[in-house]
Amino acid sequence: MFMTYKKYRSALLIFAAICLAYNIYEFAIGKYSTKQGIIFIIECLAGVALIFLPEIITKLFRLVLPEKIVYFYWFFLVISVFLGTSLHMISIVSFWDKILHSVSPMVLTALGYGLIGFFMKEADISKTSPWLFLLFGFAFAGVCGVFWEFWEFLCDTIADMNLQRYATSTGELLVGRAALMDTMGDLLTNTIGAVLMGIYALVQSHGKPDYFEEYRLKKLHK
Prior knowledge:
By secondary structure, the chain is an all-alpha fold. It is built from 8 helices and 2 strands, in the order αααβαααααβ.
């Protein structure tokens, strides 16, 4: 299992290096403004650092994340940071942002399963109702989606980044219902993603009382 983990991580690092080289090339030929080019490079470098986040969590908090959650998280990194931002799919494909808002709650729902398993300590998961995991995972993903909208609102307030799409690309301010469409659309896709992950887990757990054990976060003992 550890060798599989290392192979996936190495493949992801190679892909990240290719994306970084591409962003540096774009910066060198002046494809974008200097400021925008630097932002792309910084975001790609941040993505490289985020590949090691599961290992950083283990070192800092002595928590071991199940490989199932780690691989799903890496998949999200690929479609968000490397494909979405570095290779600009978010600008090329109009609904790419909605794809991200659908996949991210799936990752968070899985993490919610892991957290509730961790909080149960040594309890026997096979004797616990799967609905405890399903409801907690759904709620956890929903709350994270709300806090993400808070973050976008803060960025828009401080830096006028238009993350919540309250204005058109020409700077014209939207009014009323039109100004709410992006935020409400994000919350809707977030909810749909969490529901889909819940349905998947419900189907997979049928006849497997210890299914959610696969998601449990575990404390690394000294």
